[in-house]
Amino acid sequence: MDSCILRLSLCCMGLCLSACLQIEPRGFFVSYESVDQRFEQSMTWNDQHPFPTLVSSEEEYEFYAVSDIHAGKTNNLGLFLEQALLQQPIAVFMAGDLTTGNANDYHELYAVLPPQDSLPLFPIPGNHDLYFGGWKQYRLLFGSSVYSFSIKTSQTSDLYICLDNAGGTLGALQLEWLKELLLYERPQHRYYVLVNHNNWVRLRRMLATNPYVEELEVLLELCLKHRVDLVISGHDHKSHTAVFGNTLFITLDALRDSYPTPSYLIVSIGPDSINYSYRNL
Amino acid sequence: MQNTYKALYLILLMMACCYPANSQVELDYLLDLGQTNVSQGLYISTALVSAYSFDKYALKAGAQFQLIHPSSRVFSAAEFVAGRCFCVGKQTLEAETFYLYRNFSSLMFISNWGLAVGIRKRHWRFDLGQDFKAYRVREKALSYETEGRVIRENFNLIYRIAYFVNSPEKPWNISLSLTNRDYFLINQETNPMLSLRAETYVSSTMKLYLENWYKPAGALNMSAHYFGYFARTGFIWTPAF
Predict the structure, then answer these.
(1) Which has more confidence, A214 or A202?
(2) Angle at the Cα of B228 (from B102 to A209), degrees rounded to 5?
(3) Residue A92: which of A171, A160, A140 has the closest Cα?
(4) Which A residues, 25 through 84, put their C-beta within 8 Å of a C-beta on chain B?
(5) Would an 8 Å CB–CB cutoff place A202 in contact with chain B?
(6) How far apart are CA B20 and CA B22, in angstroms?
(7) Inter-chain residue contact A220 with B146, CB threshold 8 Å
(8) In this predicted complex, what is the ipTM?
(9) Chain A contact for B218, CB < 8 A?
């Protein structure tokens, strides 16, 4: 009986791990680099390439967000970029899983992206971007996975924080950085917006991983204490929203070509409120 | 918090008063030392769990206290369990329903309730259950002009698969478990934890144990990162009255 269970368990594990060629079984046990290493490399890059403050000429402005592109194939991304170039939002967030992690896919993606001066793009990595040693490619093309910048209007300023939780955790260093940023920068800004890949709250059953309960406790308390207005995530491939405390949590649809209902998020930031809608491709 | 202490005290008192001859009391004391990505260095917590079983029924109540932890909450969690054993053929199935309260912040808390069943084979143990989790904002947080007071994560799968080197009759054992449930914590089903446990009877009424827990984040994202590790030591005392 015991040996049967053991064999069955090993067979199931083998089947699961070899089920998909787009994932790396080694990732179940260990990653190529730690989140702390990515954070430190990002901070070094940020010091050398500080993010400029974006300026909106009007009090109300829009930004877009997409997630889970999973390039190589980039048809949906191409359609989205056409619309974005036409509408000219002040910023476009790419909330992770931009590629499958393969170097070729990174190059496919980069070939489609417009120059930064025609459309300000703010990418962050997702778990797929780290497969096959993908962080090296990501770093080469985008430099940093953790950064913050502000968008200024004539009256006020809003802070945007892009986080790297592609490995299911922010890690100790990034969490401390976030805490300090919330503590010292919050009073100078009107709205606070966080963008990351892994959705925090698990509003529907999914196979992919969310942050540990212990980490979620810390993050939710931080959001409440510092009045974080909006948290944008991807990862789940299906859009949903929730409000907890005074924070709106938005999870994005996937933009990957094989996804049946791809959409992107449009967020309108106004003097008194934040409004959002999804636009189908 | 005082109400929780009172409730725990009452439960223990009731157990002591209603102690018939064919029942059993068990006290489980444990001490955790560990480090996680959110603990800002070493954390130390301790817990006491008392169990009272009568015939096929069992009641369990426990509380956890943080001795060193950045959250500065001494009383950090409590759990109440009611269970019953069922005989299915030659197997004994242990069913339980539980309520778990995590007192992680002065502004919010987690309440969990759920059901689980467990079966012990000679060298294996399997547990399966469902958990319903709610993150709740406390009344105290009203000054933050909260809009959403509760957020729920329903139908979370609870599992545990454990392999034991020895059968249960032996005085010592070593086991390896994969689970998303620990004392006072139920993770999402996609966050498994790995535990290695060694236990031995030092007398007919006292069992000592030592556990090592590894918590990887993002394992099911195929991008496993370190989240935390802790060592636990404790004893289970079954007084013979």
Answers:
(1) A214
(2) 75
(3) A160
(4) 25, 27-31, 34-35
(5) yes
(6) 6
(7) no
(8) 0.89
(9) yes
pTM, 2 dp? 0.90
pLDDT tens-digit map of B4-37: 566 556 655 555 555 555 689 999 999 999 999 9
The CA distance from A251 to A143, in Å, is 25
pLDDT of A21 above 70 = no
β partners of residue A248 = A230, A243
Decide if A184 touches B, using CB distance below 8 A. Answer: no
Query: Residues 203-232, chain A: which have Cβ within 8 Å of B?
Result: 203, 205-218, 220-221, 224-225, 227
Q: pLDDT digits over B147-188, tens only?
A: 889 999 999 999 999 999 999 999 999 999 999 999 999 999
pLDDT band at residue B71 using 50, 70 and 90 as cut-offs: confident
**What's the average model confidence in pLDDT over A75-88?**
96
Number of H helices, E strands in chain B: 1, 14
Name chain B contacts of A201, Cβ cutoff 8 Å: 135, 151, 153
pLDDT digits (tens, 9 = 90+) for A192-203: 999 999 999 888
Q: State residue A15's pLDDT score.
A: 47
Please give the single-letter amino acid code of residue A269: I
> Two tokens at A97?
């899983």
Q: How many CB atoms lie within 10 A of CB A153?
A: 17
Place of tokens 């649809």: A253
Of B37, B137, B187, the CB nearest to A170: B37
Give the SS3 label for residue A49. coil
